[in-house]
Design a protein that fits this description.
Layout: H1 17-25, H2 28-34, E1 42-45, E2 53-58, E3 63-68, E4 72-73, E5 76-80, H3 85-96, E6 107-111, E7 116-120, E8 126-127, H4 128-133, H5 141-154, H6 163-173, H7 177-187, H8 206-214, H9 216-231, E9 235-237, E10 246-248, E11 253-255, E12 262-264, H10 266-283, H11 289-315, H12 338-364, H13 378-397, H14 405-409
Antiparallel strand pairs: 1-2, 2-3, 3-7, 4-5, 6-7, 8-10, 9-12, 10-11
The structure holds 5-S-methyl-5-thio-alpha-D-ribofuranose and magnesium ion.
Magnesium ion binds near residues 49, 240, 245 and 257.
Enzyme class: transferase
InterPro entries: Aminoglycoside_PTrfase (IPR002575), Kinase-like_dom_sf (IPR011009), Methylthioribose_kinase (IPR009212)
Protein name: S-methyl-5-thioribose kinase
């Protein structure tokens, strides 16, 4: 028994690089994928997120990516944490890979004792956030992510599967409570009151933080969105779909890091992604950054709606009078579908709300993003963060009234948004 293993995982030990190579050499399929002998394999650590150790191993024939849970948050060893997050990530990949085969990675192996997950390595791909910060323009990524969200959520919802199957899956992810707690606290709660995990480095943000926390309309929106996150299990979500959870090239897009997977409102995944596009917009000084950002959000939303409704129409093609229990959502004989329209509108409102909450938590909460780090001066960084917070505050103030992308996000291009 390993003295450092958590009590409920007696065979667990944190693998170092030689340990990873030894682990892989004991798995014939993975060893064959790498090719050659263990002595010919190279290994490098690529840990980038907050939680886990991640390594890429390359051999003469191919590569794999190895991810292991730690008994604590990687970036804060004093924050202890159960190990089960790689189990949920492996489950998520197995559930959604058939729905989005070219848009994520395949789970090649999961070890339930060591909490090690092995997936395909993405040679040549960059973390999308890092690529955006270096100025790339990869027009495929946004519609690919919209397609990913539409297919992965539709395919795991009762709109496409018998409820028994959905509820069984829901029961599995309902155990992902450690990471659900993190999202509840870090994204949906902490930023809206004093909490030691919050931080920002300039008192010039204090007044906008105060505005966010004291506006009754913002408070109402935040409370409603928090409640929806817990009470609206529409589909299996990625749960942490920021631009650091995407690996891409100019021609290929893959969603990674599904450890936060949970049943919840579909607009949560949409809002996380769009929120990170908006964060990027506020860190970008190029003159048409606002116009490009609004165009990207419109492309995301239009692609998502087109794909989601295409799947829906294909799954329920018959007129409501002759169909089963989901008739409310099936088009009438004349093709109209008020139920579907209302459902999609609710996803839009959720997207806008969670987008705002993602922006806010990334600036004043625990886990900031690197986007603003490329801005050369402290004053300019503060100015941009202030502008982003003000914009997010406005989204929540008017939450539920915006109606379309232009109404919600059009201010990103107008001169009346100060600070950029
Ligand atoms: C302690 S975990 C902090 C953040 O990192 C993850 O990527 C999630 O975004 C989480 O909120
Ligand atoms: Mg992550």
């Amino acid at each position: 028994m390993n003295a450092h293993a958590p009590p409920n995982a007696p065979r667990y030990r944190t693998l170092d690089m030689p340990g990873i190579l030894a682990f892989l050499s004991g798995l014939p399929d993975l060893a064959a994928r790498l090719g050659g002998t263990r002595a010919q394999w190279t290994i490098r650590e690529v840990s980038d997120g907050n939680l886990n150790n991640v390594f890429v191993v390359d051999g003469p024939r191919g590569g794999v990516c190895v991810k292991q849970s730690l008994p604590h948050v990687r970036v804060d060893p004093s924050w202890k944490m159960p190990l089960d997050r790689t189990f949920f990530e492996a489950s998520y990949l197995r559930d959604i890979h058939p729905l989005v085969p070219g848009l994520t990675t395949r789970c090649l192996h999961f070890d339930p004792d060591l909490f090690v997950l092995v997936v395909e390595s993405l040679a040549g791909h960059a973390v999308y956030r890092t690529a955006l910060m270096s100025g790339v323009d990869w027009p495929r990524v946004v519609p690919d992510i919209a397609t990913f969200v539409a297919r992965a959520t539709f395919g795991t919802s009762v709109l496409s599967e018998p409820f028994e199957r959905v509820f069984d899956r829901h029961a599995v992810y309902a155990r992902n409570q450690t990471l659900q707690r993190i999202t509840l606290d870090l994204v949906l709660d902490d930023p809206y009151h004093d909490h030691p995990r919050n931080h920002w480095d300039d008192v010039r943000l204090d007044d906008v933080v105060g505005r966010i926390r004291t506006s009754p309309a913002v408070r109402r929106a935040v409370d409603a969105l928090r409640l929806r996150f817990l009470t609206c299990p529409q589909a299996l979500l990625h749960g942490d779909l920021h631009t650091g959870s995407i690996m891409a090239t100019a021609t290929d897009t893959r969603v990674i890091d599904g450890e936060f997977a949970i049943y919840g409102p579909i607009g949560f995944d949409c809002g996380m992604f769009v929120g990170n596009l908006v964060l990027r917009r506020f860190a970008d000084f190029s003159p048409d950054a606002g116009r490009r950002c609004v165009a990207e959000i419109a492309r995301f939303w239009d692609t998502f709606v087109a794909e989601f409704t295409r799947l829906w129409a294909a799954a329920h093609p018959t007129p409501s009078a002759t169909s089963g229990p989901c008739a409310f959502f099936v088009p009438d004989a004349d093709g109209a579908s008020p139920g579907r329209t209302a459902f999609v509108r609710a996803v839009f409102d959720d997207m806008v709300g969670y987008c705002a909450m993602e922006i806010i938590r990334r600036i004043i909460g625990y886990a900031h993003t690197a986007d603003f780090d490329v801005i050369p001066t402290h004053d300019a960084r503060t100015e941009r963060r202030r502008a982003a917070l003000s914009f997010a505050c406005g989204l929540l103030d008017a939450h539920g009234t915006q109606g379309d992308v232009e109404a919600a996000f059009g201010a990103l291009v107008r001169e009346d948004v100060k600070g950029f």
